[in-house]
Design a protein that fits this description.
heterodimer, A: 159 residues, alpha+beta, DNA polymerase, domain 1, 15% strand, B: 704 residues, alpha/beta, Aldehyde Oxidoreductase, domain 4, 3 domains, seven-stranded mixed beta sheet, five-stranded mixed beta sheet
């Protein structure tokens, strides 16, 4: 397969020149300097590398870049618009839904994919959708709360 | 008392390998970093000792050689706090900012906390042992209070008024009728003033806190939710190469032969050989992996014990313990109505921090700079000095706020590997350990065997407590119960795997064995587990957390049909904890589900209830792993489940309803809270499983 020479990331067409088999994660991080997307396990088991491809969540660590070269890719860096945080980013701050923050990008992107297809998810739907994302610091209850805040289903604001 | 007297817990195995510590932030380095303005120095002796009653030194006297932390107000009015502590998600960047803001009477956003940079921040032993809040924060408070008084005196001098008539309001100095005001910058301008803080500076009592004691949000939270924060793994240097290491086939394997020719032939690749060490660097990650795979190696590994024989091995290789008996266990046994002997097993588990070990190393004119995620920047600097035979002054270690550690990032192997590759290639090198390397080449929480022999009277009084912990460690081994006759011993053993510190150290193992055993004794004398514990408690703080958890849980209410309930309590590192759990068991699969957890926690005066709540809740979630399913499987020096597809971590769906009760004791000094909240969950769950199924589980994980 020929090299991939352009990628659509966060609404911009960016030039690269990489082997089409290279995982999207490393193209973003090493070639485009979009380091908000993280490596955690390399086998799609922790979700730290989650990005949106055409609005759907995708594990960039196991996605060959050649498969998404003509798709719209959104990373955490594309969530803030004109200096205004995405409602999920606001909600994560409000719910204090992080400790070390290393999983946060992947959590926000996975949550964004959920809210795109289900604007008002139930708590069970949130847990089911987010279950493939790992927070080793254990902030799961706060992340659930953050997603509920962002979707307007939160019963009360987190402490 | 000096830093050398600080006794390290026995199970910090990874720390005993290295040389002793020393202090290196001296007068010369301080003066290099101090350009002008006003500086307040905290001597190390202050950080370690309680108040010594020593009166304050005057300004601009000799700068001490044992600087532990310092606060700087520059001529632009920026307040900088310099501490060797590390931010790994425990939110001390926020809590230390709160402490300084409170005493200095300036807004939080005027303060910058400079952490863990060996060229800029004073020596610090490391960020572990829950010591930042009880040791560092009070001293930074004192420094900030002394800075405030110094600044007020300078403002008063300018106005030729009494210092008592000057106040700081919103980072401005105002005179008695607010007719005159000065900014911090205006007061600090033209000054070059250095003071050592006196030991007896008055600071604000917890009951009068207005900044601390409030739920301040993470000070740089926005950088984390936007992906802007640069962890070590995200850093990039001009001309940087990517490194990979060729790993041995097993622990203690010896390199028999290797062929690196094919790798060396790949354009841009440098192969680095040094004894058994083989690494490669390349202009990009893909080429580095390609080169690593092109190297043919033959290793020979000795036969080593596997986990099927682990517990027998730990017992067989155990050393004699140090007996420090209280009363007489023999007398206590003679007085007992019933006796119980049980053994509890604890598996090795992995820290699995989501950001793996990583380092970026760069050599410039014989000076080495390493960015790395470690809890011990100064320890890593020392390891680097030893590895490369260069003085520590030629090494700078910088720790970006790190993707967690849990006690797992105390050592510098990744930093040394990156520096070795960088030196050989003459370029900056980034090395990020893979998840598999994390599992195979870091260290684990020690496995252990714990034996308990006890005696109890029919009224619930525990009369004898003989306790032997083999290998897992001595933290939390002492009882807070009022047992008249005790013989508690820790026994070192030989570990088949590399082992070391883990959040809470052995307090988790010791609380598991003790609190499950207490539950067994309660059952033996037909007493309610809460009443049985209360019968043996005199300590008012332990009683308070136990009752708080039982109350919130509804222990006195009727049990829910089909659910089991269990409780546990304890004390470690200055704080008290109790946990109550409710479980169900799937009738078909036998799978245990934790339905609900109530945890009460008391660590003195609460500095930030938001982050404390987060920390306690997170510890409960992390504890589910070690309690329910985390266990390292190994054989012949190979880890058999060293990746996330094989090693189960707690996930969203494992998380029960969690209720946290925080007891705020404004009359008591604040203790650290990063570790102790992890110790109560496992025994509470084991006891709840027994309550439901009558099956007693004496191993961690409970499924193991």
């Amino acid at each position: 397969m020929p090299n991939v020479t352009t990628l659509n990331v966060n609404g911009k067409k960016l030039r690269v020149d990489v082997d089409s088999q290279t995982p999207l994660l490393y193209v973003l991080r090493d070639y485009l300097n979009l380091t908000g997307t993280k490596y955690g396990c390399g086998e799609a088991r922790c979700g730290a590398c989650t990005v949106l491809v055409e609005g759907q969540s995708m594990r960039s660590c196991v996605t060959p870049v050649g498969r998404v070269s003509d798709k719209q890719i959104t990373t955490i860096e594309g969530m803030e618009q004109d200096g205004k945080l995405h409602p999920l980013q606001e909600a994560f701050l409000k719910a204090d839904a992080l400790q070390c923050g290393y999983c946060t990008s992947g959590m926000i992107m996975a949550a964004a994919a959920l809210l795109k297809k289900n604007a008002k998810p139930s708590r069970d739907e949130i847990v089911k959708h987010m279950d493939a994302n790992v927070c080793r610091c254990g902030t799961y209850p706060r992340i659930v709360k953050a997603i509920e805040i962002a979707s307007g289903t939160a019963k009360e604001v987190a402490e | 008392m000096n830093e050398h007297d600080l006794e390290l817990e026995q199970e910090r195995y990874e720390l005993f390998a290295g040389p002793t510590y020393n202090f290196n932030f001296n007068r010369r380095q301080f003066l290099k970093a101090f350009s002008g303005g006003i500086a307040l120095i905290v001597p190390v002796s202050n950080l370690l000792a309680q108040d010594q009653g020593e009166s304050g030194r005057r300004s601009n006297e000799r700068i001490p050689d044992d600087i532990g932390a310092w606060i700087h107000i520059d001529e632009k009015g920026t307040v900088s706090v310099f501490t060797g502590k590390v931010e790994i998600g425990q939110n001390i960047r926020t809590s230390l900012t709160q402490a300084v803001a409170e005493e200095l009477h300036v807004p939080l956003d005027t303060i910058r906390v400079v952490m863990a940079d060996t060229d800029l921040t004073p020596f610090d032993l490391g960020t572990f042992g829950s010591l930042t809040t009880p040791r560092m924060a009070p001293q930074l408070r004192k420094a900030a209070a002394a800075a405030r008084e110094t600044l007020i005196a300078l403002a008063a001098e300018q106005w030729k008024v009494e210092p008592a008539s000057v106040r700081i309001v919103n980072a401005r100095f105002v005179n008695h009728d607010a007719s005159k005001s000065l900014t911090l910058a205006e007061v600090a301008k033209g000054q070059k003033l250095v003071k050592t803080i006196p030991a007896d500076v008055a600071t604000t009592a917890a009951k009068d806190w207005t900044v601390a004691g409030t739920p301040v949000a993470k000070v740089d939270g926005r950088d984390f939710v936007t992906g802007k924060h640069q962890y070590t793994t995200d850093l990039r240097r001009e001309g940087m190469l990517y490194g990979r290491i060729v790993r041995p086939s097993a622990l203690d394997a010896k390199l028999m032969s290797s062929d690196t020719k094919a790798a060396e032939a790949i354009p841009g690749v440098t192969v680095v050989r040094d004894g058994d060490f083989i690494g490669v660097v390349a202009p990009n990650r893909e080429t580095a992996i390609h080169a690593e795979k092109a190297i043919a190696v033959h290793w020979q590994a000795p036969g080593q014990p596997g986990n099927d024989e682990l517990f027998a091995y730990l017992k067989k290789n155990a050393e004699a313990g140090r007996a420090r008996p209280v009363g007489s266990v023999a007398d206590g046994m003679a007085a007992a109505d019933k006796k119980l002997s049980q053994t509890y097993n604890i598996a090795y588990i992995a820290h699995a921090p989501l950001e793996p070990r990583a380092a970026v190393a760069e050599w410039n004119d014989g000076k080495l700079t390493v960015w790395t995620g470690t809890q011990r920047p100064f320890g890593v600097r020392e390891e680097l000095a030893e590895a490369f035979h260069i003085p520590q002054e030629k090494i700078r270690v910088i720790v970006p706020d790190t993707g967690s550690g849990y006690g797992g990032k105390h050592t510098g192997e990744c930093a040394i590997e990156a520096a070795r590759l960088a030196r050989a290639s003459g370029k900056p090198v980034k090395l990020v350990w893979t998840r598999e390397e994390e599992f195979n080449w870091a260290y684990f929480r020690p496995a252990g065997v714990i034996e308990v022999n006890s005696g109890v009277k029919n009224d619930g009084t525990v009369t004898a407590w003989e306790y032997h912990n083999y290998n897992s460690g001595g933290s939390g081994i002492q009882v807070k119960y009022d047992f008249a006759n005790q013989d508690i011993q820790f026994h070192n053993s030989k570990s088949p795997l590399r082992q070391g510190s883990y959040r809470g150290l052995a307090a988790t193992a010791n609380h598991f064995a003790r609190e499950v055993h207490m539950d067994e004794l309660a059952q033996l004398v037909n007493m309610d587990p809460v009443q049985f514990r209360l019968k043996n408690i005199k300590d008012a703080r332990l009683k308070a957390v136990l009752e708080a958890a039982a109350d919130k849980f509804g222990w006195s209410r009727k049990k829910t049909e089909g659910r089991g309930r269990g409780i546990a309590c304890g004390f470690e590192k200055g704080s008290y904890i109790a946990a109550a759990a409710e479980v169900s068991v799937d009738a078909k699969t036998g799978r245990v589900k934790i339905e609900r957890v109530v945890e009460s926690f008391e660590c003195g005066a609460i500095v930030n209830q938001l982050h404390l709540h987060n920390q306690v809740e997170g510890a409960v979630v992390q504890a589910i792993g070690g309690a329910m399913f985390e266990s390292i499987q190994f054989k012949n020096g190979q880890i058999l489940n060293g990746k996330f597809s094989q090693y189960r971590l707690p996930r969203f769906s494992d998380t029960p309803a969690i209720e946290i009760v925080l007891l705020d004791r404004k009359d008591l000094p604040s203790a650290g809270a990063g570790e102790t909240p992890i110790v109560g969950l496992a025994p509470a769950v084991a006891n709840a499983i027994f309550d439901l199924t009558a099956k007693r589980i004496r191993s961690m994980p409970l499924t193991g």
